[in-house]
Amino acid sequence: MQEELAELSDALVGQGDAPEEAGDLLFSAVNLLRKLGMDAESALNAACRKFISRIQKMETYAKQAGKNWKNCRQGSKIGFGTGRKCVKKLKKACIVRKSRV
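The structure assignment produced for this chain is given below.
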């Protein structure tokens, strides 16, 4: 997988076919999961559920913090970044906002 990731990185800077290399990386990831006895589709579905849950939390916390999530692009426009860090910062901002009220 490291080799495929390196090839994708090279392709992204113009040294190859990025979509083809991305496909190779995905194929390698699926094959690795298969060798580990895991179902790739189940793993992907679980990751999607986690992502959706995280976004829903960010939407909720943004609203509680008085921010309009619809106008934000991945949380960056409200200065909270993305992913778990964003969820934590938004939650903290909500707690701070509530304590000021």
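Interim note for the steering committee: The helical segments are 2-12, 18-35, 40-64, 83-100. Residues 11 and 17 are 6 Å apart (CA to CA).
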